[in-house]
Amino acid sequence: MMVGVVGKPNAGKSTFFKALTMADAEIANFPFTTIKPNIGVGYVRSECACGFFKLSCSPKNSYCQGSNRFTPVKLIDVAGLVPGAHEGKGLGNQFLDDLRQADVLIHVVDVSGRTNERGEPSEGCDPENDIRFLSEEIDLWFAGIIQKNWEKIRTRVQYENKDLIKELAVQLSGLQVNEGHIKRALDEAGVDEAAKFTGDAIERFARTLRAISKPIMIAANKIDVDTSKNYERLKGKYEITPVCAEAELALREAGKKGLIGYTPGDPKFDVKAGLEPKQQKALDFIKAKILDVYGSTGVQQCLNAAVFGVLKQIVVYPVENESKISDSKGNVLPDSYLINEGSTAVELAYKVHTDIGSKFISAIDCKTKMRVGRDHRLKDGDVLKIMAGR
């Protein structure tokens, strides 16, 4: 699973990415700062199971802060997109190729309207145009790939009696789409056979398939300088989150230096050490103009919404010792895993290790102390001891 951070140049993508990952992404005030994609690890926030058991946990693959478990998820920050990208304009070909890996997209938009379509500083630009053009470019990219492969698909379906869904899945596998995505898109687009794939039908199918396989969330970045009230105008029309990536990055860096106590996603922070006047002024601004107004910087909320809301993931904890809620070395709740909502106990076993999955016998729900079978449906926050044969 991978979350893509996308948008036009200079909208704040790399700042957003760096705030989530604390990776060394290049940040500058000019177009195409990101030429090669930045790939890193962000963390989704959820209530840690340590609170249920009233234990102090010792995470290995994740971390716990203030009884909140932060579970890793891969992120990719790709080159800035400009109109005409599907035709190769700007860094379009590279952007779209990098985009193939993502399962959900967070579109970082300069909601202040101070960046034009080429990523250059400007005034009075409408961020709604950015929202529209990015989805349009990706939709046209999907349509172009389908059109390019259509004769091959049509021939196999009509003359070799191949299955339409399977043929589409083979030809479009590079887009990270599966047969489930394709079947749903065909149904919703009203295309039920190869003979109906006209130009309009291909475009309709492409738009539907993109929306299903690469849904887009909107991060209304630079909310602190949105003097035109663009966010207020757009929030009723789109699923959009107010964001100040610069503020989140500042808070995380201050926390890393021990200047403040801050849990990502919180509406407040605590000063831990003496601050210089410039630092105090910056933190006062973040508190008054962002946290007190919007309840957070919005960065953590965007990632959580993408992973838990759009991709329907849950967090579960495999352990080896059901009494101590630990692994064999005594680490309490050592690992947290993201897994699809509705997954079974055996699917978690396979995620931990293929051998454990193939030799699965049963599992113990550590919260209820009940033994469960391979088809037991997992819930968010479940803690399981998996028993497997040798």
**Secondary structure tally, helices:** 13
What Rg is obtained from the alpha carbons, in whole angstroms?
23 Å
Measured distance between first and last alpha carbons: 30 Å
Instruction: Write down the overall mean pLDDT.
Output: 89
Structure summary, number of beta strands: 14
| Major sheet attributes | 7 strands, mixed
Can you summarize this structure?
38% of the residues lie in helices and 19% in strands. It is of the alpha/beta class.
Question: How would you describe what is shown here?
Answer:
This protein has 390 residues and is of the alpha/beta class. The chain has 3 domains: 2-125 and 215-305, P-loop containing nucleotide triphosphate hydrolases (Rossmann fold); 136-209, Helicase, Ruva Protein, domain 3 (Orthogonal Bundle); 313-388, Ubiquitin-like (UB roll), CATH 3.10.20.30. Helices cover 38% and strands 19% of the residues. The protein contains 13 helices and 14 strands. The strands form 3 sheets. Strands 1, 2, 3, 4, 5, 6 and 7 form a 7-stranded mixed sheet that branches. The protein is flat, with a radius of gyration of 23 Å. The protein starts with a strand and ends with a strand.
